[in-house]
Specification:
By secondary structure, this protein is an alpha/beta fold. It folds into two domains: about 25-195 and about 395-505, Rossmann fold (3-Layer(aba) Sandwich); about 195-395, Rossmann fold, CATH 3.40.50. The chain is built from 17 helices and 16 strands. The protein has a six-stranded mixed sheet, with helices on both faces. The protein has a four-stranded parallel sheet with strand order 7-6-10-13, with helices on both faces. It has a two-stranded antiparallel sheet with strand order 1-15. The chain starts with a helix and ends in a 13-residue tail after the last helix.
Length: about 500
């Protein structure tokens, strides 16, 4: 009888724990996310910050982005070699050994809530800031879900000793918020963003008295934040530049989403224009395809890479349906702004101000070369407004440099191994009855950008990278573009105990 009662009691406890866990998913708590983390001990987002390990060199480094684009930043960090590993002395050519070879990283891509650039377009920056602090919470916390269908989370994830924001929009809108949160938590933890790094790289192209133009290609959110523009102007003044630097921005509407396979911007299976499409078109006031210069874009019209009605000579309802065509559109749009500006200086550098863009540096270069040589009626259209070789600036290199300097200054270098690195991605939390999903299982656009900040709940689950959470197209891109980092993802899939719940068929 006692045995039966014990079994029944344990069953009731299990049911209570399960119900409590689900309740946390379904019942929003009103308030500021920082306050909830710091003061609400019973909430999923609480952290025991009094006992948080401070300046513990054995901990990993946290890095987050709005999706998988930040892996390009991580890849640069992982392959960074500018020092002698024995003496820590700077050597421009390196010593042939990766500088961070004894570190390990925890990466988070907030795929479910991306693209971050759209939050400013939809006048919902408070929600974006909430997402950003939740990302920081994840990196600092020990909780994660073993897979998208899991009903309970695990608590064996490491905390981190430093945070890299591998996202331009998150840096522009959230870096100061993160620093304020850490200050409230009485944690002196380094936060490194990519914007300062990108500006330093661009200005290195110019001599002190040299004039020219800098282009910024970034998400709509980064552009509207004026983060790069303000930082360039601050650095020009700080460094006493004598030349005239013109700055032109191009909001890459749809490009980051297309790279990450968002259905709002791209659909490989589509054969005709789609109602849910939100990328550039002749009727999009924020990203209009100018039919009078259609040939200048150099679109590839083959294989449904462009969707349209009517015939090829007179297309209507045009929609872009390939990453390469998105890049072609935005590069031309940037150069059109420079051309129409009048007496602007030649374009000499473009900051690839979104972590997704460096995956396609070769495509940007091809478009710039084509436009430098592009003529109409024998006249060069863009050559007078651009250098023959426009430098493409990837902010990642200076980000790696700043991270190295921080670890060196506090003697925080680890003695672990890169193979311990872990990779997580956010997916919609289907346990939360408040969420609204489309036919593909993603947040609907209206729900994604229409939610209100201050109703704290688990919109998403953070789960490990696997074939179940990363599409084949994205996995193939990672395999080709950043092979070393992709090998670490595979190692995480194969060897890390956190992947035990994932079937072998779903692992990379």
């Amino acid at each position: 009888m006692k045995k039966i009662n014990l079994i029944g009691f344990l069953a009731l406890i299990s049911l209570w724990l399960f119900t409590t866990n689900c309740a946390q998913n379904n019942q929003p708590v009103k308030g500021d996310i920082g306050d909830v983390i710091l003061r609400n001990a019973d909430n999923y987002f609480s952290l025991d910050l009094k006992n948080y390990p401070k300046h513990d060199k054995s901990l990993p480094i946290g890095i987050f982005d709005s999706g998988t684009g930040g892996l390009a930043v991580l890849d640069v960090i992982l392959n960074y070699d500018r020092h002698d590993n024995a003496s820590r002395r700077f050597i421009a050519a390196g010593d042939g050994i990766r500088d961070f070879k004894n570190e390990y990283f925890i990466y988070l891509g907030d795929q479910a809530n991306m693209p971050y650039g759209n939050y400013s377009r939809e006048n919902n920056i408070p929600l974006l800031k909430e997402h950003i602090i939740k990302n920081v919470h994840f990196l600092m916390d020990n909780k994660y879900y073993p897979d998208p269908d899991a009903t309970a989370y695990k608590t064996d994830k490491e905390s981190v000793k430093a945070i890299v924001i591998a996202c331009n929009t998150a840096t522009a809108y959230g870096k100061s918020d993160i620093e304020k949160f850490l200050s409230r938590a009485k944690l002196n933890m380094k936060v490194i963003g990519v914007i300062d790094a990108g500006v330093k790289g661009a200005l290195s192209i110019f001599k002190k008295s040299e004039s020219g133009s800098i282009g910024i290609m970034a998400t709509a959110g980064t552009v509207s934040s004026q983060g790069y523009v303000k930082t360039i102007r601050t650095q020009l003044k700080k460094r006493n530049y004598n030349g005239v630097i013109d700055i032109f921005q191009q909001a890459g509407i749809g490009l980051a989403g297309a790279i990450d396979g968002s259905d709002d911007y791209i659909s490989p299976a589509a054969t005709k224009p789609r109602a849910e499409y939100k990328g550039p078109s002749e009727n999009n006031p924020d990203a209009a395809i100018d039919l009078t210069i259609l040939d200048r874009y150099g679109f590839d019209w083959n294989g449904n890479k462009m969707l349209y009605e009517g015939d090829r000579k007179h297309p209507q309802n045009i929609q872009i349906n390939s990453v390469e065509n998105y890049i072609a559109y935005h590069v031309v749009s940037l150069l059109e702004k420079i051309r129409k500006a009048g007496n602007s200086k030649p374009l000499k550098a473009i900051i690839l101000g979104c972590t997704h863009y460096p995956f396609f540096t070769d495509v940007f270069e091809q478009n710039l070369t084509r436009l430098y040589n592009y003529r109409e009626n024998g006249k060069y259209i863009y050559r007078p407004f651009m250098a023959k070789k426009v430098a493409l600036i990837d902010p990642s290199l200076n980000t790696a440099k700043e991270l190295y300097a921080y670890l060196d200054s506090l003697k925080l270098f680890n003695s672990a191994d890169l193979s311990k690195s872990e990779f997580y991605i956010s997916v919609p939390n289907k346990l939360n009855r408040n969420v609204r999903l489309d036919s593909m299982g993603n947040f609907t656009y209206k729900y994604k950008y229409g939610r209100k900040a201050g109703f704290i709940q688990q919109y998403v689950k953070r789960v490990p990278f696997s074939k179940k959470t990363i599409s084949p197209d994205i996995a193939d891109r990672l395999r080709k573009k950043i092979p070393f980092t992709f090998e670490l993802i595979k190692e995480f899939n194969r060897s890390n105990p956190k992947m035990r719940a994932i079937p072998a068929s779903e692992k990379f």
